[in-house]
Amino acid sequence: MARKVTGRHVAISTVAAWLAGFVIFFPILWMVLASFKTELEAFATPPSFLFFHWTTENYVTVQERSDYLHHALNSLIIAGGSTLIAMLIAIPAAWSMAFAPTKRTKDILLWMLSTKMMPPVGVLVPIYLIYKNFGLLDTRTGLVFILCLGNLPIVIWMLFTYFKEIPKDILEAARMDGATIGRELIYVLTPMAIPGLASTLLLNLILAWNEAFWTLNLSTLNAAPLTTFIASYSSPEGLFWARLSAASTLAIAPILIIGWFSQKQLVRGLTFGAVK
Length: 276
What we know:
By secondary structure, the chain is mostly helical. 72% of the residues lie in helices and 1% in strands. The mean pLDDT is 83.
């Protein structure tokens, strides 16, 4: 027997959702506010929330000390390049697993997922030596390659889930009309899976943009993205919270804007197939 949803239940749910959202978003809000404080106000106890001397001095200092645009361009190229290559590999791989499975398909999917459970530090030394021997250290190509491999299992899993939800009858009808595998993939399957493709692309882009472990260990200056840019504000003299907050705000601003304008596609894609 279905429960009756009253206005009171809706109001409580709405308030609870807004409170949960505020708690989750609060660290980002606090970081943004700290970026407009002086160093003394950023360390002050008790901290001030809104009533302090607002200043943009930290942003000016960050821009003068560091080449923000250089790091932002590196992040854009590395995140975009790794996402594009991962999608080009994952779409045919997920298609074959979803519509032409074998006895080993499930084992392969579980093996790919298990690679994400291994801590990256476990393979840092061999990968570092390989990169050193092949001249890939501190290069955009090297970071694109490692981030593509790191996120590929998740991309394939997500696309596999989306493709499994598509009725096979549609693909069989296309084959009866003479569609080749390439045409079936490009003109039939891809348009039907656009929400899933868009959400997978956006999620992979966010993961690659925020990746810190590999970017910090495999780059120093030339290919350093925004994660390295943030880490550069940790010095032996201590942490300058206001400047660090300004650098962090500048680093997350692009991906935060992209996430805000694409939230409908993200939610739709991530919940695709969850409710029947």
